[in-house]
Amino acid sequence: MVRAPRLLLLLPVLCVSEISLEPCEVDDDDFRCFCNFTDPQPEWSSAFQCISAVEVEIHGGGRSLEQFLKGADTDPKEYADMVKALRLRRLTVASAQVPAVLVGAFLRALGYSRLKELTLQDLEVTGAAPPPPLETTGPALSTLILRNVSWATGGAWLTELHQWLKPGLKVLRIAQAHPLAFSCAQLRTFPALTTLDLSDNPRLGEHGLTAALCPHKFPALRALVLRNAGIETPNGVCLAMAVAGVQPQHLDLSRNSLRATAPGAPGCVWPSTLNSLNLSFAGLEQVPKGLPARLSVLDLRCNRLNREPRPEELPKVSNLTLDGNPFLDPEAPNYQEDPTKSGVVPACAHSALAVGMSGTFAVLQRVGGFV
Fold first, then answer.
1. What residue segments make up the domains of the chain, in order of their start?
2. When you count CB atoms within 10 A of the terminal residue's CB, does the N or C end of the chain come out lower?
3. What is the homologous superfamily of the domain 1-129 according to CATH?
C-alpha cells in the first residue's frame, strides 16, 4: 500500500485490494456517501466506495486518527491527478481525535480537489500545529463549517486554519467553539467573507462578540448571524460592530433572551448599510428602544408582545412581521395573569426551530446532517 492513499482516507480515497460494503454506504446515484466507523476494528477500506461521490460524510467513532500520521509527510503532488479527478464538492469529517499535523496534511491534499464546502464536527484537534505553509496550498473553499471542535492551540486556531485556505471563503459558521476569542493580531483578513455565523455559542454574549469580531478583518461582511449566542441587547451588538468596523446588511439576533437596554448605557449609531433585523423568538414583551431608524425588514415573530406596537416605538420599516405574538392570538396564554405560562403563541412554542437549537442547525439537520 502506498503512503499517500493512507492519508487520503479522509478525502476519502483508499486504494486497497479488499473493499467492504460496510460501514460506508453510497446512494444509487453515487452522489452521497456516508461512513460511520464505530466498530472496534473499523474497515477503513470501506471508504473506497466514496471515491465517486459528490457529498461525503465520515464519522470516526470518536477514535484517534494518529495511525494516518505516517502518510502526512508525503508530497501531495504524487497523487495530485487522482485528487483532481474526484467529484467531491462537500465533505464532513466528524467524531474523531485528529493531530494538528494531520489537519495540515489533510488540507494540503485537498488543495488539488474541487471541494467547496468543508464541515468539521465533534473533533478534538491535538498537539502542536505544523509550520505555516510558505504559500497557500489548501482548498479554495466557499463555505467552512465548524461545530464543537476543540483546539489545543487555543485562540490561535483560526489563524492556523485560515493560513491553509486559498482566498475566496464566503461563508464561515462556527458553533460550540472552544474557544471563540481569536488572536486578532495574527489573524489574516477575510477579504471575500460575506456571512459570519456564530450561532449556537450561548456563552458568547456581547463581550465575547467584541473579541471575536476582530477589527477590520471582515471588510466584505453582509450578514452577521447570532442565533442562540447569549446576546442580551441589540445595543450591545451595535457597539461590538462599531468597534470591529463591520457594515452588515442583515443582522440575526433571533433565539436570544433579549431585554431592554439598561438606563445610562452608551448610545450607538447603527451601520447605515443595515436593512434587515431579525428579533424573532427573543422573548420580547416590548419593542427594544434604540433600534435603527430605518429598516427594510424587521422580524418580531413569536415574541411576547401583548399589544400592537405603536408607530413611535418602531423604526420606519417596509416589511414588519408580528406573527405569533399573543396580541394576535386571543387563545394564547396570558403571561401577565398567569406567570406559569410562557405567553408564547402555541404555534411558536411547538416550532421545531424554537426549542433548544438555532435555525441554522435545524435546517442543516433537515438537509442531510452536514453539521
1. 1-129
2. N
3. Ribonuclease Inhibitor (3.80.10.10)
